[in-house]
Write a structure and sequence with these properties.
The complex is a heterodimer.
Chain A lengths: L19 E9 L2 E6 H25 L7 H21 L3 H19 L13 H22 L2 H8 L11 H36 L8 H33 L3
Antiparallel strand pairs in A: 1-2
Helix pairs in contact in A: 1-3, 2-3, 3-7, 4-6, 4-7, 6-7
Chain B lengths: L4 H16 L3 H21 L4 H32 L5
Helix pairs in contact in B: 1-3, 2-3
The chains are: A mainly alpha, B mainly alpha.
Chain lengths: ~250, ~80
């Protein structure tokens, strides 16, 4: 069974498949564990982000009265993220600024890393599902932290009165569907862009000169930025709902 | 001409993948609806164009999801081949 499109357990021939590079010396549940292109691309993305962060740290520890260059850029990014997160999450925005800011930067750089010739790490279901699981844990940790058992029970039976829990299984299923829909949305968007670009470069390689740049602008920059915004926005909305209660 | 069982399943998987991506019809209708209403909103209130565009793009990205589920199902049928073997 060839499942390299979704998971890293087999090798494929097509350009958009995840390639296996180095086998690990141990086995997990009967199958060999590989270092794949996703891991390498995530490392490159992380190196870019860490390098940028270190440069920003250097610029901000020697601040100037009139900000120039990198100090301007860093302040602009932080202000933009802070405005977006505080605008969505209200009073609890400051506590989640670090997490959602980090996730936003990581997904954005991952999505536009197709411009550098990498296979975007977010086109691997493992990456997006991991981030959706973190959101899932955040949602339910905050629900339990800010609500008692009675409120939870009333909420889970919500359209009907609490002595009649017919809607309970449906509400539970809709809770489980949240991380799956979040991760599949991001994964499928980035993957569809990757596939279209691989088809253009694979089938039209003789005439693929300059004009694929237009497709890169749409699939990597525009679609990647929109999906980053959507992922962070929906995660923040769910967490805010978990804190304030759905009313 | 001999057609084995797995060949038949592969052919049917390809047809199923084609049917699965027709979920794009609903996505197209939804996104077009959002864009049309956004255009009408800008016509009524040109000052709020920035907010309207942001809201429209967010709604369209969410509406795109169902079409992408169809795409994922089609890709699974074509490349992962869960029904064969």
């Amino acid at each position: 069974m060839n499942s390299s499109l979704l998971l890293s357990s087999a090798s494929g021939d097509l350009g958009f498949m995840i390639k296996e590079l180095v086998p690990m010396p141990f086995k997990f549940m009967g199958s060999t564990v590989w270092i794949t292109t996703s891991h390498v691309c995530i490392l490159i993305v992380l190196l870019i982000l860490i390098g940028f962060a270190a440069a920003c740290h250097h610029a901000l520890t020697h601040p100037k009265e009139i900000p120039t260059g990198l100090q301007n850029v860093a302040e602009l990014i932080v202000e933009m993220l802070s405005k977006m997160i505080n605008g969505t999450m209200g009073k609890s925005g400051d506590r989640f600024l670090c997490y959602f800011g980090t996730v936003f930067c990581f997904i954005l750089v991952s999505n536009i890393s197709g411009l550098l010739g990498l296979r975007p790490p977010t086109a691997d279901y493992g990456t997006t599902f991991a981030m959706a699981i973190i959101t899932f844990v955040l949602i339910h940790f905050n629900t339990i932290k800010y609500h008692n058992a009675k409120e939870l029970w009333i909420d889970k039976c919500s359209p009907l009165p609490p002595w009649c829990p017919i809607w309970l299984p449906i509400n539970l299923i809709s809770d489980i569907a949240v991380p799956i829909s979040l991760s599949l949305r991001l994964f499928a968007n980035v993957l569809s862009g990757t596939i279209v670009m691989a088809l253009v470069y694979g089938l039209l390689s003789k005439v693929a000169i300059i004009w694929p740049a237009v497709l890169h602008v749409y699939f990597d920059l525009f679609s990647g930025a929109i999906q980053t915004y959507v992922f962070c926005m929906l995660s923040m909305t769910y967490v805010t709902q978990a804190i304030d209660g759905r009313d | 001409m001999n057609i084995s069982g797995s060949d038949l399943i592969l052919a049917c998987s390809a047809i199923g993948a084609g049917i699965a991506v027709t979920s794009g019809i609903g996505t197209g209708i939804g996104q077009g609806n959002a864009a049309g209403h956004a255009a009408a909103a800008v016509g009524r209130n040109p000052g709020a164009q920035g907010n309207i565009t942001t809201t429209m793009l967010l709604g369209q990205a969410v509406a795109e999801t169902t079409g992408l589920y169809g795409l994922v199902v089609a890709l699974l049928l074509m490349f992962v081949k869960p029904l064969v073997g």
